[in-house]
């Protein structure tokens, strides 16, 4: 499959409102390797990413050292995406997760231009290390989530915890809120 001007790319997405690419995991776990994607196009802020269940020896995407992005992210039952280390996954649209989004040691950013929500069960075991909010139209949390790293609300960003966010510290790490230059509403629990 080609992508770009390849007729199969346009036919495949004829019924979509926005282009999408589907993970295959044929080559490696690298999100940024175009050969891991069915259309040989790496998702970005304008291209949806769909992660279906794959059969071994294929692997699931891992983002561990750089910032990557997708417009809408769909993770199927049995599938997973891992964000760890200095890796960042920026989402410009929605998240639909029936599988696993593991950001226990990584960063998820919400960078959309329209209001976004963080649905129930978005993050594996309800934990995320770092959460970045840049969306000026608002990001709303819709289920209990524990943050173990840094909550960053960037200039103009708007974040509503809906009273679901817990800043969870341990003997080895402290959850913190970066200097807020946007807006935060809702209560947070500190543990």
Structure description:
With 191 residues, this protein is mainly beta. Helix content is 3%, strand content 40%. The radius of gyration is 17 Å and the shape is globular. The chain starts with 6 loop residues before the first helix and ends with a strand.
List the helices and strands and how they pair.
Elements: H1 7-12, E1 20-22, E2 48-51, E3 62-63, E4 67-70, E5 73-75, E6 80-91, E7 95-97, E8 100-110, E9 116-118, E10 127-133, E11 139-141, E12 145-147, E13 150-153, E14 158-160, E15 165-167, E16 176-177, E17 183-185, E18 188-190
Parallel strand pairs: 1-2, 2-5, 3-6, 4-6, 5-7, 6-8, 8-10, 9-11, 10-12, 10-13, 11-14, 12-15, 13-16, 14-17, 15-18
Which percent range fits the helix content?
under 10%
Determine the strand fraction and express it as a percent band: 35-45%
Order of helices and strands: HEEEEEEEEEEEEEEEEEE
Give the overall pLDDT as a whole number: 92
Distance between the termini: 50 Å
Low-confidence regions: 1-14
Report the C-alpha radius of gyration, rounded. Answer: 17 Å
Shape: globular
Count every helix, treating DSSP H or I runs of 4 or more residues as helices. Answer: 1
Structural class: mainly beta
Describe the biggest sheet?
10 strands, parallel
What oligomeric arrangement do these chains adopt?
Answer: single chain
Count the E strands: 18
In short:
This protein is mainly beta and 191 residues long. The chain has one helix at residues 7-12; strands at residues 20-22, 48-51, 62-63, 67-70, 73-75, 80-91, 95-97, 100-110, 116-118, 127-133, 139-141, 145-147, 150-153, 158-160, 165-167, 176-177, 183-185, 188-190.
């Amino acid at each position: 499959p080609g992508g770009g001007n390849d007729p199969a790319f346009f036919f495949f997405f004829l019924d979509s409102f926005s282009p999408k690419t589907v993970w295959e995991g044929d080559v490696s776990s690298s999100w940024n390797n175009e050969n891991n994607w069915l259309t040989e196009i790496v998702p970005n802020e304008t291209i949806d990413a769909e992660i279906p269940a794959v059969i071994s020896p294929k692997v699931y995407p891992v983002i561990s050292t750089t910032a990557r992005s997708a417009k809408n992210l769909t993770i199927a039952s049995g599938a997973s995406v891992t964000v760890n280390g200095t890796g960042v996954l920026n989402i410009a649209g929605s998240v639909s997760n029936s599988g696993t989004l593991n950001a226990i040691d990584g960063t998820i950013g919400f960078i959309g231009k329209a209001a976004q929500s963080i649905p129930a069960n978005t993050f594996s075991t309800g934990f995320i290390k770092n959460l970045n909010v840049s969306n000026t139209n608002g990001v709303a949390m819709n289920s209990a989530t524990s943050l173990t790293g840094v909550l960053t609300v960037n200039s103009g960003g708007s974040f509503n915890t809906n009273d679901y966010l817990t800043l969870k510290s341990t003997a080895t790490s402290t959850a913190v809120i970066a200097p807020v230059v946007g807006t935060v509403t809702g209560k947070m629990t500190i543990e």
